[in-house]
Structures are given as structure tokens and as C-alpha cells.
User: What shape does this take?
Amino acid sequence: MSVFGVNEIAARLPSVLMHAGMVLLIYRTGRIAVNPRAGFYAALLYAFAHYPLELISGGYCNDHNDKAFIFYITASFWALFEFRASEKPRFMYLVGILAGCAVLCKWLAGFLVFGPWFLSLFFFSLSRRWSIKTYLPFLKAFGICLLVVLPWQIYTLIRFPNEANFELFHAASHFTEAVEGHSGDLLFHFEALKLLILDYEVIYYIVPASLILLFFRSAKKEYFFIILMAILAVYGFFTAACTKMESFTAIASPLIFISIAALLEFPLSFIYRNRKSYVRAAVTTVIILTAGFFTFNPEKSFANHTEWDEMVFNYRNAKIREAFFLKSLNKILGEGNYAVYNSSFNLMSHISGMFYTPYICFPDLPTPEQIKEAKEKGYRVVVLKFNAELPLYITEDRDVRIVYIPYYDTFTYE
Assistant: This one.
């Protein structure tokens, strides 16, 4: 934003770049794990997929965080496959760096790459299973990961002990309790495959079938093992956790797309035996674009971005008007150390307020104590007024500035 300014494009650009980068990462991973055609099919399917595209546009919650987390997890597996295929040390270092970034992004699940890697070394290095040299690259990468992660953890524990301990406890509580009401049964994450991969019941059969075929089509059984263990670890861990959200298992979706690509590649491999190039090109194009069309989920995508769904359409328009007002608030108040209260005209409007303005924003009306505290800390208090009357302790305080929003009804939605 220091380059492009504070605007929607600047906020979304990192997610766009990460999504574009993931297409290349998935291609390379699929190319190594299976073959070039499978890598291409996996990358194409992911490029079309509904869920990651909606994350880019902010269609689902935790969009920036989840997009970055999925990117770093995928990149760490790409680096692992590159290292196992070439044994070049630079990829070993990248595994550690990228996994470290994933941990910093969304805590312990960022270590995901190390579990399948360790197990693959143990089960596929039979003659050298008990030799420490077998595990040296793994240990080096894990050490690099810790070097990336620990400085920030140590700094926050020393500099902000209360906040850091709260965050650690809050992260751990996701496993033992349904945080913020995000609960679900044992099938929750399996049902979420319809959102993350393909919005049809057949996905429950496609995923197991694709994993079975991946076993036979993988370039090395070790590669299949790494993919399978990663998927099982993700779904096993988050199924056991009490807090459940669809996005939790999205980190496994690139690997699932690679397995589905292996399923697609198998019948298409017979078509490639046809000597007539135009037949190969025509049939392959139709099949791949059809698969991409359904992973794009046009019905849900259009519902989120057109007038198909009235509630979503009204809410989107409300957010557009919200942005217009917040931008105008900069002109109304000008420069100053302002604390803006009652900015709850939409869901999380106070967050939007702190994006579009340099002011600190709160969703609720201030109490007399909060007004006093804000003044003592050097803030000039501003209260947004909608149709409802404000309490007397606010209206009679000459130091409190009241900003009236005359078109409040346009911000509401049913």
C-alpha cells in the first residue's frame, strides 16, 4: 500500500499474485509427483476453482489470512517435491523458510510438510532407516523453520506477555472447544469438499477414486505417500478439533486437485495414443474445460457477484456505500487523532473504517468512562449518528463531535 496507496486494488493484489503463483507451484508439484500432463490439469483446475477465486475477491471470511496460509503450505510442499526429485540443497532451505512463514501466518498447522516428509524417510529408506544421515536434510529444514518462527514468538512473549499468552491460549482452545460457535459433526470437513473442490455429491466418490488411481500413476510411491499422508493429517486433525470452519482443510485442496488430475490424466492418456493430433486436442480440451467449468461453480459464483441472490446483492451494495461514506469521513474530519464510535452500520464496519481512514474505530456507542479515557489519551471523540437518538451524556458533551449519516437506510439489508 505504500506503493499503490490505501485502496481495494492494493489490498487484493497480494492475494491475486499468490493465487497466480500457486498455479505454477501446483503445476510443478503435479509434474514431479505424476507427470507433466497431470501437473497441467491440476494447475488448470485450481485456476478455475470457485473457493480460491472467492478468497481473492473477499467472498469468504479470513480471506487474506487463509490465502496466504494456503500459499505458504502449498509452496512448502512444492519445495519438498523439488528437493526429493533433485536433492538440491536450496530446495531444502526453501522448505524450512516457507513452512516457517506458514507457521507465522496461522500457527502449528504450518508445520504440516514435516510430518509426511519424516514418515516418507522412515518407510522408504529401509536400508538407511536408522542412519542419522538419512534425516539430516529434514533436521536442517526443520531447524531453518524454527529460526524463522522463534524470534517473533520470543519477542512477543517478552514485549507483550499478556497478549502473546492470550493468543497462544486462544489458538490452542480451537482444539478443545468450538470457538465463536464454529462447531460441526464428524462429517463437517468432508461435506466441505463441495465448497472447496466441486459442489456436487459425486465429489465424495471422486476423491477416494483419485487417491487410489494416484497410487498407480504417481512417478514414485514415495510421492503418493507424501500426498496421502498430508491429506489424511489435515482431515484427521481438523475432524478431531472442536472448532470447525470450511477453510481449515483448504490447505489440502491443492494436493487433492493433483490427485484428481491423475484421475483425469489416466483416461486422457489413451486419447494421446491416437495419432491424429486434432482428435487429441479436441477431446482433451472439451474434457478439461468441462471439468474446469464445474469446479468454477458458476451458480454460486454468479450468486455472489450479480443480482441472483438478493440478500448478497443488497449486502454488497451496502458495503459499497459504506466505503463511499468512510472515504468521505476523511474529508469531514480531516487530519487529527480521532476515536470514532458507533461505526456499526454493517458487519465489521469498524474494521473497514480503520482501512479507509487513519482513525481508530469502535462498533458501539462509547460509555462515559470510555469517552473520558479517550480524552485522557489525547483522542478527539467522534460519534456517528444514525436514525436513533443518542444518549444525553454524548449530545451534551461539547467535546464530542457528532457526525450524522443521513442515508442510514441504504446501509441496511434483510
